[in-house]
Specification:
alpha+beta, four-stranded mixed sheet, globular, single chain, Glutaredoxin
């Protein structure tokens, strides 16, 4: 029996994007049951006292090069976003707040806009374009991302991830085992079918 793979992600994470694209290629037949878990990566780092690579010049340079290597190796369309890093708070709340029927399209469109099309996904015009592409009501979206229940849910999901010893994105959890990083995706898939 195939087990659930919990996939912790944030749109800000280039490695989450690469892992998602790899997973899409490896799961074309929907053999794996993926449960997407939105977290606020900046909040998770703060809880863990972690300085993100984006704020370390040497790590940042390596991360950019590494992402290009991974993308090329896996034939994934990828452009390092000129606006990296951004605060993904509103889009992560948006993912939580939208109807489940729109989540997959929103997920795809946000990731592609940022990491494939080099768009500034904090620009209201670009967010409006994403919402139009997804068929999401703009007025409801902007109201919902400021709803206290939605704010609390993202905070709670991030805190719960921290309590599970998750410290970065992407992270995959299968059978209570943690697999951190896009390069551990195959290990998580193996665990899911073992």
């Amino acid at each position: 029996m195939t087990k659930i793979i919990n996939f912790y992600f944030d749109f800000i994470s280039p490695y989450s994007y690469l892992a998602y694209k790899k997973l899409s290629l490896l799961n074309k037949e929907n053999k794996f049951n993926i449960n997407y878990k939105p977290i606020l990566l900046g909040g998770l780092h703060k809880l863990g006292g972690i300085t993100a690579p984006a704020f370390n010049e040497r790590k940042m340079k390596n991360m950019r090069n590494d992402c290009v290597l991974v993308a090329n190796k896996n034939s994934i369309e990828f452009i390092w976003n000129e606006k990296f890093p951004i605060n993904s708070l509103y889009l992560m709340r948006g993912y939580i707040s939208i109807n489940k029927d729109f989540k997959k399209k929103f997920f795809d469109t946000c990731f592609d806009a940022y990491w494939k099309n080099n768009k500034d996904i904090l620009s209201e015009n670009n967010v409006d374009e994403i919402l139009n592409q997804c068929g999401i009501n703009k007025k409801e979206f902007y109201i919902n991302i400021n709803n206290q229940k939605v704010k609390d849910e993202l905070k709670d999901l991030t805190n719960l991830a921290f309590e599970k010893n998750i410290f970065g994105a992407p992270t995959f959890v299968v059978n209570d085992k943690i697999f951190w990083g896009q390069d551990r995706l195959e290990y998580a898939l193996d665990e899911a079918i073992s």
